[in-house]
Amino acid sequence: MSGTALFLIILAGVVIYGVMLYNRLVGLRNGVKNGFAQIDVQLTRRHDLIPGLIESVKGYMKHEKETLEAVIQARNQAVTGLKAAAADPANAESMAVLSGAEQSLSGALGRLFALAEAYPDLKANENMLEFQEQLTTTENKVAFSRQAFNDAVMGYNNGIEMFPGSLIAGWFKFSPATFLEIESEEKREVPEVKF
Amino acid sequence: MNFFAQQEAARKKTLRLILVYAIAVILIIAALDIIFAIALIFIEGDSSQTWNPLSWMERNVMVMVAVSAAILAFIGLASLYKMIAFRGGGGAVARQLGGTQVNDEKRDPAVRRLVNVVEEMAIASGLPVPEIYVMENESGINAFAAGFDTGDAAIAVTRGALDVFDRDELQGVIGHEFSHILNGDMRLNMRLLGPLFGIMLISMMGRIILRGMGRTRTRSSKEGAGGIVIIMLLGVGLTVIGYIGYLAGQLIQAAISRQREFLADASAVQFTRNPDGISGALKKIAAWQYGSEIINDGSAEISHMLFAQGMSSQVNGLLATHPPLSERLARLGHRLSNQELAKLVMQMGGAGRSAAPVGDEVFGFASGSTHSEHVTASPASMLDPDMDIKAPVLSVITQELYEAVHDVNSVGQVVIALLLDPAIDLRTRQLSILEQQGSEFAVERANHHWQQIGRLETDLRLPLLELAFPAIRKLTWQQQTALYGLVDALITFDDAINSFEYLLSRLLMQIMQESQHPRRRVKTARFVKLYKYQYELGVVFSVLANFGHESKHAAEQAYTAGLRYLSPQYDWPALHVSKNWSGAMDDALQRLDALRPLVKEVVIDSLKVTAGHDEDSNVVEQELLRVIAGLMHVPMPPEHLLNLPTD
Predict the structure, then answer these.
(1) Angle at B270 between CA B267 and CA B273, to 5 degrees
(2) What is the pLDDT along chain A (195 residues), one digit of tens a residue?
(3) Lowest-confidence range among B143-152, B406-415, B564-573, B613-622?
(4) Quick check: A148 and B113 CB within 8 A?
(5) Do B123 and A31 touch (CB under 8 A)?
(6) Does B124 touch chain A (CB under 8 A)?
(7) Which of A80, B254, B313, B494 registers the highest number of CB atoms within 10 A of its CB?
(8) Per-residue pLDDT for B378 more than 80?
(9) Is B251 buried (19+), middle (13-18) or exposed (0-12) by CB count in 10 A?
(10) What is the rounded average pLDDT for all residues in chain B?
(11) What is the distance in angstroms between the Cα of A128 and the nearest Cα belonging to chain B?
């Protein structure tokens, strides 16, 4: 009699623990999804900032038309790239196109800021300082959202690969997530935004 | 650094400490049970001759269970009360401490940056963006997070922090605070403080009982004597157990809090992937004139959530809610040398109050350390003012120079003058450096003193400096830092540092430290074998041998002779002097300073062997010996200083 009761209590404990583990894994998986959404949000934000930046420097940098146009062009390419990638995040090719476009946008922005060094009025301009801070923070946010995504992936993968989580993961078919990797050191670097 | 491993270690230690805390609470309840049991036995009286504890337990087991439950319920209710008092969420705490919520952030670029950094860290940590507060009236550097949940959390930063930190440092600090939110440190701490409050109430109850008894004593009759004993037992028992429990609980709570700080530091690195940011912030806190002191009352309640120790009182050691800054820096893979600290203090305007509140922690001397075997001998106090070491210098210097060296207003100029180079082109460059530092008057005076000193023999530089020490000690911290700034500029301009320059700057630095912490005791390492300091000893002996001897061969011989004298059986490293010998020397002497006093004296004796190997000890050797002894806190008998060459 008491043996049966003990067995039932242990069984209940195991079931409750299993449910808790399952919920934890679902939470981790949602963290990974959210991490990816964040990257998307931050990239869009950067694209939205650029027209305003161009507008405010245009007056000062009349002789740098080419650079300004290069920034606008790179931005527009990145926007279309992002749209294509967002439509089908699983497609590796569209992701590669997007990362290439983002790369050239970063490069164009870097050149713009380097040229701006030569314009003292512009350097002191409040709008410009504001934009500089905004771009710095957005670049950081892009980098941090990538990093947070990868941290989330690591936490999730640890959760489903380590015992006893691995049992639950096997049961309910949790598949491991892949890290977001940037191929070269160069691409990892956001341009130095400095005045 | 491996921040994931460090986080794991801090979490494990926290768990262990929480277990200890729980055991402590259980022990307190058990102790109180015993007090009640004794009281109960007294009330029952001695009915039977053979009192049997087992049968007593059997009769009263339900009573004891009830008593335990009552105590537990009491502590639980007290905790609940404490928690309700803090229910307002993080924002309420921040407002209570004088924070204003950031709303129109566009106006102030510093605030704008803060908002951006908080948003960045929210992304990096995967938390929602908390409410952001700025404590406008706090000029100290600090920041805190408050709130039970990630949903109602708030982050507050002092105005001082906004002004002083650069973007990376601010990021590190905010990342640290996000870790407190993410790991639920506020909730954890409330759960620890609640029972602590209950235990404190128990101790208070005991004291109330004792006080009440004092008042009714006059009315006591013979029959009531037994009752009084019982009440007194209860009163004393509750007071003592409550007090001990409260103390023990506080110790454990502080230890847990320190682990959470390490966890938060490691997490900040995880979020920012940049250990330099948070290390820079910690270093600036060490240097900032107000330290991390918070003026507002009531910061004790949130002390565990702050970025750095918030109270100015000497909360050191076991009751500190934050680990020493030096240890936090060490775990981040950084260390703060005294030179760097002084530079930071100068950069930040090193005025007024020094970094005193945290200074003790920076230098890593545990306060009240029982290891100290001797009190620091300060450079000037090593020599009796009347000792005739100064006799030769007194007979040669002019009355004007004598007065200048004793006057706090002019002693700095004499020190500057001592550093001016005899070569005219170098001296011109030095004077222009002084002018750049904005001290035209000092330039003129220093040049004037230089003319007087220039006539002196070089062997009188050190005695003259010794004369200047008492006046330098009387300077304010501000003046001392300013003087050190000039000295540092004059020494480093030609990239070569000679023995006298080294001596002057290091002894000046030591005076500054000692006037900041007059009663600092030197921590002594016990049972350290000399061979562990092979490298350090090699550095010091090399420098001395190299400076004292013309040829490399003679230097090598003197070097070996000194170390042989120290200990013949070890394999000492070969003579080697790096270009940056002063930095290596600083590190070496700092380590050797931890040796036992007797061992240090042997080291100094061996150094004298090296210095005297060529049968005559010159000025440079004397100067080097003087600074080595000074920095190692070994009193140098004056006869060695007096033993100047007579040509």
Answers:
(1) 135
(2) 678 899 999 999 999 999 998 998 998 888 888 777 778 788 888 888 888 888 877 777 777 788 888 888 888 888 888 887 777 665 667 777 877 888 888 888 888 878 877 787 777 777 777 777 888 888 888 888 888 888 888 888 888 888 888 888 888 888 887 776 654 444 445 555 444
(3) B613-622
(4) no
(5) no
(6) yes
(7) B254
(8) no
(9) middle
(10) 75
(11) 12
pTM of the model: 0.59
Exposure of B233 by Cβ count < 10 A (0-12 exposed, 13-18 middle, 19+ buried)?
Answer: middle
CB-based contact A152 B126, cutoff 8 Å = yes
Structure tokens at A148: 């947070």
Looking at the complex, does the CB of residue A34 fall below 8 Å from at least one CB of chain B? yes
Strand partners, B131: B154
Distance from CA of A104 to the nearest CA of B (A): 23
B146 forms beta bridges with: B154
Helix (H, G, I), strand (E, B) or coil at B574: coil
d(CA B84, CA B29): 24
CB-nearest partner of B123 from A130, A133, A141: A141
Residue type present at position B195 = P
What is the distance in angstroms between the Cα of A82 and the nearest Cα belonging to chain B? 20
Catalytic positions of B, please?
177
Asked if residue B373 lies in contact with residue B597, where contact means CB atoms within 8 angstroms, the answer is yes
B271 CB within 8 Å of a chain A CB: yes
DSSP letter at A140? H
Residue of chain B minimizing CA distance to A37: B123
Q: Residue B124 is nearest to which of A133, A136, A147, comparing CB atoms?
A: A147
pLDDT tens-digit profile of B432-454?
Answer: 777 777 665 667 777 777 777 76
Give A66→chain B minimum CA distance, Å.
31
- Identify the three-state secondary structure at position A163: coil
Q: Chain A within 8 Å of B123 (Cβ-Cβ)? A: yes
Answer whether B126 sits within 8 Å of A136, measured CB to CB.
no
Judging contacts by C-beta atoms under 8 Å, the chain B residues touching residue A152 are 126
Residue B522 phi, psi (nearest 5)? -85, 130
Rounded mean pLDDT, B565-569: 78
- Spell out which residues of chain B touch residue A34, defining contact as CB-CB under 8 Å: 126
Nearest to B313, CA basis, from B296, B333, B332, B293: B293
List beta partners, residue B156: B133, B144
Q: What is the mean pLDDT of residues B252-265?
A: 90
- Alpha carbons B475 and B508: distance in angstroms, whole number: 11
C-alpha gyration radius of chain B = 32
Cα-Cα end-to-end distance for chain A? 80
**Chain A contact for B112, CB < 8 A?**
yes
| Nearest CB neighbour to A133, from listed B113, B125, B273 | B113
Starting at the edge strand found earlier in the chain, the sheet holding B143-146 runs: B100-101, B131-135, B154-158, B143-146
Of the partner residues B106, B109, B273, the one whose CB lies closest to the CB of residue A147: B273
Q: Which long-range contacts (CB under 8 A, 24 or more apart) does B91-95 make?
A: B91/B131, B91/B133, B91/B146, B91/B147, B91/B152, B91/B154, B93/B146, B93/B147, B93/B154, B93/B301, B93/B302, B94/B131, B94/B133, B94/B144, B94/B146, B94/B154, B94/B156, B95/B133
Longest dimension (CA), chain A: 93
The CA distance from A127 to B294, in Å, is 35
From A34, A137, A151, residue closest to B120, measured CB to CB = A137
List Cβ neighbours of B284 (8 Å cut-off, separation of 6 or more).
B141, B164, B165, B169, B344, B348
CA distance B507 to B473: 11
Identify the bridge partners of residue B230 per DSSP, sorted by sequence position.
Answer: none
Report the chain A residue with the minimal C-alpha distance to residue B115: A137
